Backbone:
């Protein structure tokens, strides 16, 4: 199985389960050296803390992502399973950011609790 982890905590869980060799893709924040990075920060380099806060606030108000997903690289790596999150709009890419070209059957959002708008999972 080829796993793309777009959430650092999910990468740690995959590794703890002994599936480190199955990791096919990760974010720049994930602790998995040697695994291709398909998600990077969109924050420009060289900003001081105040500028970062302003930049993040502006992006959030505009509905723009804080992270950039390399869709072409993700498609090329062709994972069987994509682990991401669906709770926070400013954290690593929520599944709605993956785009229409990513089969939703491959996406498994990591959830710490069900969101109010989501039906309970079986």
Residues:
């Amino acid at each position: 199985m080829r796993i793309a982890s777009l959430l650092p905590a999910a990468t740690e869980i995959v590794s703890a389960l002994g599936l480190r060799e199955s990791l096919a893709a990760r974010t720049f924040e994930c602790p998995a050296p040697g695994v291709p990075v398909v998600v990077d920060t969109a924050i420009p380099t060289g900003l001081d803390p105040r500028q970062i806060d302003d930049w993040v606030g502006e992006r959030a108000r505009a509905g723009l992502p804080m992270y950039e997903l390399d869709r072409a690289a993700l498609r090329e790596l062709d994972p069987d399973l994509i682990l991401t999150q669906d709770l926070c709009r400013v954290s690593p890419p929520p599944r709605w950011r993956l785009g229409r070209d990513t089969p939703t059957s491959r996406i498994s959002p990591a959830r710490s609790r069900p969101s109010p708008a989501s039906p309970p999972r079986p």
The CA atoms of residues 12 and 31 lie 7 Å apart.
